[in-house]
Amino acid sequence: MAQLDVTERLAVERQLHESELRFRMLADNIPQLAWMTDATGYIFWYNQRWFEYTGRTHDEMKGWGWQSVHHPDHVERVTERFKTSLLSGDPWEDTFPLRGADGRYRWFLSRAQPIRDERGEIVRWFGTNTDITAQRESEQVLRNAISLRDDFLAVASHELRTPLMTLGLQLEMLERTVGGPLDDAPDDPAPRQVRKRLDVSLRQTRRLARLVEGLLDVSRIASGQLVLRFERCNLMTILEEVVERHSELASRSGTEVRLFARPQVEGWWDCSRIEQVVTNLLTNAIKYGRGAPVDISLAVHGDQAEITVRDRGEGVADEDHERIFERFERAAPTRHYGGLGLGLFIVDQIIEAHGGKVRVESSIGQGASFIVELPLDSRPVDIDETASHSRRFSP
Amino acid sequence: MSDPRRTILVVDDDDDVRETVVDALSLEGYHVIAAPNGLRALEMLRATDSPPALILLDLMMPVMDGEEFRRLQLKDTELARIPVVIVSAHASSEMISAELQADGYLRKPVELLRLYDIAHKLT
Q1: pTM more than 0.90
Q2: Residue A246 in contact with residue A282, Cβ under 8 Å?
């Protein structure tokens, strides 16, 4: 019996020893720094990576010696938060720089979990530090790139507006000099041709102005400078005006734009921004609608107005329903359709700032319905008087 | 300056913009004078006995920009009365024109009818 006990004990000890070896092997070969504390937070074990990284010895690091490789700006906070976790028993997580053997700091995401005995008492903490310096650097590079892009957008749209102004005014003055509409022009073909070319030039200049305006809106949104001015207006009037203004564009592409029911819906919005939303949705519908009829409808559900613009074009695939509202995104491939991919982003941002929502219902080959839900009174509920008539928003 | 009520001062550093605006307003029957920066505009205003009825003011200009011009104009009791419209490509020209207590603003590119509209209203 006794002989058996000894054999059994030896077997258990061998198993423990093997398990310990396996653990050391694993702990020394993971890319993270790893360590273990007793219940009081005293570190009694580090993996090999820790010593390689810090260039320090176990004697220097044991207990609370690790504080000497922490950055002086962080060590106090790190210690305090770690002690809080020791007391509460909650898992610990923090991000801080650690000094390497070369004297340089690298950033680590650090976590520790309590290990409990069968009675639920914490006996140890097992912790790791993961080097996230590269991630942090690439995030910084990305942030810099985005901020550079936004600065560039702001400068570019600003710089483009000055020559556009000269061009537009000159063409408009020329239009006045040449005189009335094409139908009234004399039979002499020369003035008719001048008039025609002038029309195209004016149209393209206005298009250029709209594109530049889009860039400016994006840079405004990025810097939180887009301000809404609330006034009372009639949504049906806005729809009718936008349809009227695009009748020429629609007829040139052979598109019939239909406005069915005509309820009079009044509310508080930034009317010129809502007009911009409807314009973007309608020009999109004409652009992607393959010449088939485009239907616009307006309805009221409770305290929400609902505008729907429906085309019968190629449609938008399910997986693109969210993406198309993002900046510089588009559903159609760039090689088939022009544009900057800003229209729906601006629509989404304007509607969101009004406290509303815009979504698309569509599938490939089925056309697309863009649905705008807009609170009848979009004014912010702030009591602050200055905020009650304007609202800034950022993405 | 025959009729001071109908004289407009255009302040803009871009030669083409300035000349185009001068042309456009002249076509509409205004008497138009022009300056390429705020300093020159102030000199012109201080030298004349018949001040203009309206100033169209660009913001970004060398030598003296629109903001500084406006500040100095408001300090001068004689000149402070002349209405000013900010004409700028700046993204926040609306906010800036409110800060400068301007009488209006036009964001570049300005359409001909908008230009005439504001000129009619303020002269």
Answers
A1: no
A2: yes
